[in-house]
Specification:
Length: 79
């Protein structure tokens, strides 16, 4: 399952049948953002950096992760 909340952790996603509420990732799973800042009309979401992605995509959880290839399609849904 790509982008499942807490994948590979004790409290995280296991299977769609066991933990359907953890299927998928929302913005706050990665950004832990300040809602007020994001609600400003002038807010522009920055492109995610390698450090943000590699908090979860580690050699253990995602050994084939290649930031340059995988980050191309990452965007804020409000863009």
């Amino acid at each position: 399952m790509c982008h499942a909340t807490g994948f590979g952790t004790q409290q995280g996603f296991r299977t769609i049948d066991e933990t359907p509420e953890l299927a998928g990732v929302n913005c706050q799973d990665c950004h832990r953002f300040n809602v007020d800042e994001h609600q400003r009309s002038s807010f522009k979401a920055p492109k995610p950096g390698r450090n943000l992605c590699t908090n979860c995509h580690t050699p253990v959880t995602d050994p084939a992760f290649e930031f340059e290839a995988r980050s191309v399609g990452v965007r804020c849904p409000s863009d």
